[in-house]
Amino acid sequence: MKPRTGRPERGLLELYRDDPERADALVWGRRGALRGAALAAMGAAVGAAIPFARRMPPGLVPAALAQPAASGSGGQPNLLRMEGKAPLVILGERPLVAETPEHMLDDEVTPADKFFIRNNGQIPEPFAGDPKSWTLRIEGEVNTPLALTLGEIEQRFPLVTRRLQMECGGNGRGFFSPETRGNQWGNGAISCAEWTGVRLRDLLQAAGLKESARFTGHYGADPHLSGDPNRPAISRGMRIEKALDEDTLVALRMNGQPIPHVHGAPVRLIVPGWPGSLSQKWLTRILIRATPHDGPGMGGTSYRVPVRPIVPGSRNDGRDFVDLESMPVRSILTNVAHGTRLPAGTRGLDVRGFAWAGDKTVRAVHLSVDYGATWQEARVAEPANRHAWQRWSGRVALPTDGYYEIWYRATDSDGRMQPHVAGNWNPQGYGANPISRIAVLVG
Amino acid sequence: MTLTRAVIASLVLAAVVLFGQKHGLWGVREAPAPPPPTPAALAFRRAQEEAAARAEAARAEAARLAAVTQPAETPEVLPPGEGREEVFGACTACHSTAIIRRSRFTRQQWDDLMDWMVEKQGMNPLDAEQRRRIVDYLAAAFPAASGSAGRRAPNPFLTD
């Protein structure tokens, strides 16, 4: 391909937006080999020379052109303007959904204002009563159904405080190709706040689980988007083993404060490491069941992934899928924003972030600035407690001025790494955790 | 003598009156201070104040949220095309248009989504002609994208 005359960068950008396959074929050549002119065009498109360009895998769109909208730099994303919240990137107003860009997640403990927002229904009217009088019911396959006020819960059961990562089941969805249904998250639907509450298992023990108790079903006070009072906005459930995990909490406080309304005041579940939709906000009732729960958000393709991989983009009713449980390993880079311009002559950059892996831990994080040709190991700290995310840090060398991508890849305690592309495509887009990357420009 | 006694008596009387007034024994007196409130009454008053404060905080929070979740939208937020007004009319009762604008689907997928919206989300079924017009519009305005370059953040290093 000849570089376009006039404004080549514009042309290439448009081409990528409108017809990425063709743009790729043109830019990268039929056999995927990078050619001189194509390289120049790509350099023009990202706005700089590309050191290590020969190592960029064929068909890969540079990060500068390929970040989901919520990476939050450049352009005019729709930003949340609300007292008590940082300017998160709004993915939708009703239902209110907002992503925290990676570079805003640099705190060890996620402050309330930087906590991502996902609602499935309307946000309920704030509870104007005494929070201590809010009632939580535990019913179903139990010997003694319970109806406890929060005041009683705090008095009767031991309070515990834990740092727990909580992530939307659809985090990373924007990396799927072809695009799937659902909110097109980047990697920013993640949080690790300090939660205080009682263990769900203590409440279940007080109610007395019957032999038949195998699954939970969760209910909250948020109305369905249609306003229909007989339709829960979302009601998901889990295996009883997860309900009995010592880190599954009925949470009353977030970072030592009452839970903010938009995050589920006065009480919510925290089911760390599993899809956030299990961490029911505005919690009113937990149903203990003998069979898997069947509320909205269960079954079909909801929060479910294929066992036998399906053709990307194909139609499927999800009958053979399984529920997504422990979330896959993922990492974020929190001290340098995607799209940062560094002074000419910068030859090294300290980078840090967090990594986590659902119920597992993170064994390693590796960094690359040459498209994965070489990797170096970052330092990874122990988690503050089980189910807390882990701090990683390192320093990368930038041998010349120009356009660089910093790739960061976490490996979980079972040795599973973030893959090169989002795999196991599914219609509603769960489990995308490809190698994370940001673009920086030196000079 | 009698006169002297009378003068002394009246002086004494005046002194006593003045003394009495000064010490509040008679004359203009302020209303007696109310008896101190009982602990129960104090608690009741505090509870009422707290309830009022909570109600006020709840009202303020609801207003803050409404400002964000109820954007003033008109059909023009959707790309022009035949059927735009119908889509805006049929599809914004429950959610804002962001959820539609973010989507990139084939005609088949848009068509399937109409069933999902009716069966799972309580949308009133569309009649055949309305459904055809709405799905035609959606499939044309928001066609399937490969995902590698769908609606991405703009290139941070190019500003034009």
Automatic annotation (TrEMBL), chain A:
Gene3D superfamilies, alphabetized: 2.60.40.650, Oxidoreductase, molybdopterin-binding domain
Occurrences of domain Moybdenum cofactor oxidoreductase dimerisation (ranges): 326-440
Transmembrane segments annotated in the record for this chain: 32-53
Cofactor(s) recorded in Swiss-Prot or TrEMBL: Mo-molybdopterin
Cross-referenced InterPro entries: Ig_E-set (IPR014756), MoCF_OxRdtse_dimer (IPR005066), Mopterin_OxRdtase_euk (IPR008335), OxRdtase_Mopterin-bd_dom (IPR000572), OxRdtase_Mopterin-bd_sf (IPR036374), TAT_signal (IPR006311)
Coiled-coil ranges from the UniProt annotation: none
Protein name: Sulfite oxidase
From TrEMBL, chain B:
Superkingdom of source: Bacteria
Record protein name field: Cytochrome c domain-containing protein
InterPro entries: Cyt_c-like_dom_sf
Lineage: Bacteria, Pseudomonadati, Pseudomonadota, Alphaproteobacteria, Acetobacterales
